[in-house]
Write a structure and sequence with these properties.
57 residues; alpha+beta; three-stranded antiparallel β-sheet; 33% helix; IS1 family transposase; FdhE-like_sf
């Protein structure tokens, strides 16, 4: 149990920061983080890099 509310806030902010970093996508071709999610063929999910145009699923 945290000793103060500030320790609890620091703990929660650290968890949010970790979660954001772990869900970020990057293009396997150029490494850019500028990735859009698109509806793929047959209802699947595809991704498109808006920097280089590479697409993958």
């Amino acid at each position: 149990m945290p000793a103060s509310i500030l320790e609890e806030v620091d703990h929660l902010l650290g968890a949010v920061s970790t979660r954001r970093t772990s869900t970020r996508l990057s293009c396997p071709s150029c490494g850019s983080a500028h990735v859009a999610q698109a509806l793929g063929d047959n209802g699947g999910i595809s991704y498109v890099c808006t920097a280089c145009g590479h697409s993958w699923s």
